[in-house]
Amino acid sequence: MPVEEALSRRSVLIVAAHPDDETIGCGGLLGRMRSPRVLHVTDGAPRNLVDARAAGFELCEDYAAARRTELLNALELAGVSAQRAECLEIADQEASLAMADLARRIANLLRDLRPSAILTHPYEGGHPDHDATALAVHAASNLIPASPEIYEFTSYHARNGVMEVGCFLIDGEAGEPVVLTNAERERKQRMVECFATQLPMLRNFPLDIERFRTAPVYDFTQAPHAGKLFYENFDWGMTGTRWRDLAAEALNELGVVARA
Fold first, then answer.
1. What is the domain extent for residue 227?
2. CATH no. for residue 194?
3. Structure pTM?
4. From CA 23, how far away is CA 12, in angstroms rounded?
């Protein structure tokens, strides 16, 4: 069954690292899904206040609240109510420090909600929170007896030292393109515009095509690609080496093999 058809027919839990990741990754397809639920790992507010102050906020809590409001406004355009959007309230840029706990919490939600499919990030070294979310989802699926199928939307990663968006890593499966209708493109544009604090970044992402694939099997203790990871260009308190050490610790604590 094509991925688009599978996601449109099944009960889907979207697990995203930050408020707006779901919009750039699957905002168009959201309208085709049957009563999707959305789970965010972080509140979108780094505790160092750099992003908050750049957006005009002095308090991290106010910035997080603004990002939550932006998210709910965007999801409403896609027909997803606030009651179907939850957040695990991890600080932005700190999901890597809580991967074992995240996996357990996601596993509990999977037991309660029983979705037939999960849609989440690929493991690509674009953002440590994206990779932590991917690990937590894959590990969670190993903690429950009947796990849903895991699918992926595109995020971003490094290619030749610059950010690449709208596709998966070259060494991975290309994914299934879903061409959005005019109405879906217009709606996705309105969804993107809801994220006033994030617009400079979000304007880098395409609005006409989304790509999806069945998640591959990952070894989270190995680098997603050779060379410098995209997030290593920023002062986010994380390197690829440290991330992989934390991943190994989390998987060991959970009793999950590295190739989750």
1. 3-254
2. 3.40.50.10320
3. 0.97
4. 15
